[in-house]
Amino acid sequence: MLQQAVDWILYVLIRLNPEDMWVKSLNFFVYDCIKIMLLLFFMIAAVGFLRTYLPQKKVKNLISKGRFGSGNALASLFGAVTPFCSCSSIPIFISFLEAGVPLGISFSFLITSPLVNEYLVVLMLGFFGWKIALAYVVSGILIGTISGIVLGRMKLEKHLVKDLVASKVKEVKHDGIKSRIRFGLDEAVSIIRKLWVWILVGVGLGAAIHNYVPSAVIQGIVEKGGILAVPIAVLVGVPMYGSCAAIVPIAVVLFEKGVPLGTALAFMMATAALSLPEAVILRRAMKLKLIMIFFGIVALAIIATGFIFNIMQIAI
What's the sign of the alpha-carbon dihedral 169, 38, 195, 234? Predict the structure, then answer.
């Protein structure tokens, strides 16, 4: 619906040529900006409304009692059923932090949500079959769970930007539903005012990359990687930013040309879970050091997963 509206404005109303590369990038930019802004507003408003019924202190106590990473596992499972890209997952991630959800558990959601989603799984089933698709889903959930546990135990809360993600929220008594709705709306407006510039910059960076990096270049770099093909595939995948429809076919071509399965999947995982636009938007919520730690741990987890898949492929 939203995509159709953007197409109509650009191609019918303004009469731009849909075949021009810069117009495709403009379409990408307009669509993603509107989508992320709307998602940010409604998700933060909804979570803010729900928080009025469940105070922050109770949320923290309830989730923090989970043992052996159960909270991280639940956050990863929730992320697996939410069809968001790396940038679209940020509004819910921020909502979690605002609600008092521990940082490590919030990271588990942020990692798994773009890494595993329904559309990606359907494409995986069609291109690779159910066994590889299932293995991919399980590995994605494990990456989110384990990475979230590691990040949570590193006590990195001091690297959050205080004016956006408050460590303590003053509990307010609400007299009726109107007061609760207004609280949620006020929270949404407040965060959008602080974040909108970073969203425009982040998505603008993604739009600049989108459509301008030929798949043949990616294939050539990965194919020549040799023993280091898996980490190279991850390093190549991180700057990319696009839809699952664009990511999976490239991974399939790599696999069909003889690139090991784990290397192809590592590229797809890195492209889905990490992106430069995501880092730009997250910069408004956290300090650069935390972003680097987050990207580093997730990248290492994806590299390890890629090597495991390659070993399994040889063994089988």
Answer: positive
